[in-house]
Amino acid sequence: MEYISDSPQQTQELGAALAEKLEAGAVVAFTGDLGAGKTAFTRGLAQGLGISERVTSPTFTIVNEYGGGRLPLFHFDMYRLSSSEELFDIGWEDYLDRGGVCVVEWSENIADALEEDAVRVDIRRGAHDGQRIITVTGGAQK
Question: Over the stretch 93-109, which tens digit does the pLDDT of each residue have?
Answer without folding.
Answer: 899 999 999 999 988 88
